[in-house]
Amino acid sequence: MKNLTILLALLMTLSSPVAAQDFQKGGTAYKAGEYATALQEWTPLAEAGDALAQFFLGHMYRNGNGVPQDYAEAVKWYRLAADQGFANAYVGLGSFYYGGKGVLQDYAEAVKWFRLAADQGEARAQYNLGAMYGTGQSVLQDYAEAVKWYRLAAEQGSADAQLNLGARYEYGEGVLQDNVMAHMWYNIASANGADKAGERRDERAGLMTSADISKAQTMARECMNSGYKKCGY
Fold this sequence. Notes:
mainly alpha
């Protein structure tokens, strides 16, 4: 998880004001690096069936925050949260099955969990599902399907998805080959910090006219300024 801003936002999903107060204590402690206190606050909530606490306990065991790193224990808590429909836990389980950590590596299971999360709008899962369709891991290789999922993640600001969407336009995989669109997505991905995106943008520029480069740059500005609602021709 890149940050813990989701933590406080999701506090409102807790049904009990007392539970919410205890969870917030754990969240404050976690952000301060006081992992023992976070564990003390979250464990009773998780054991009582709170999905948010279960997810964050899993996160602690995954990263070894205040506890010995234990992928199997992380899987246990993620699964309990996932059983209650917690989308972030779906992503976590998908990642464990993909990498074979805490469970046997199983791409079919990874696809299953990523799809559940992707259908709920989780950008990380949408990107991962796009990657699996792009490479044909436990699914038939389908560039059009890969583009579909990359686009959904890209429109939520995923720099990795934006980079890969640019590549699909560069090579004409799942879409018509289009240097202007490739340049646009590479430019956006670079602005959002994707490695190598700037280099790939500049490589495309070497094959484009000045007018096409200007068009691609204008489209990139419009895309970002619209919150990724107006991206393309």
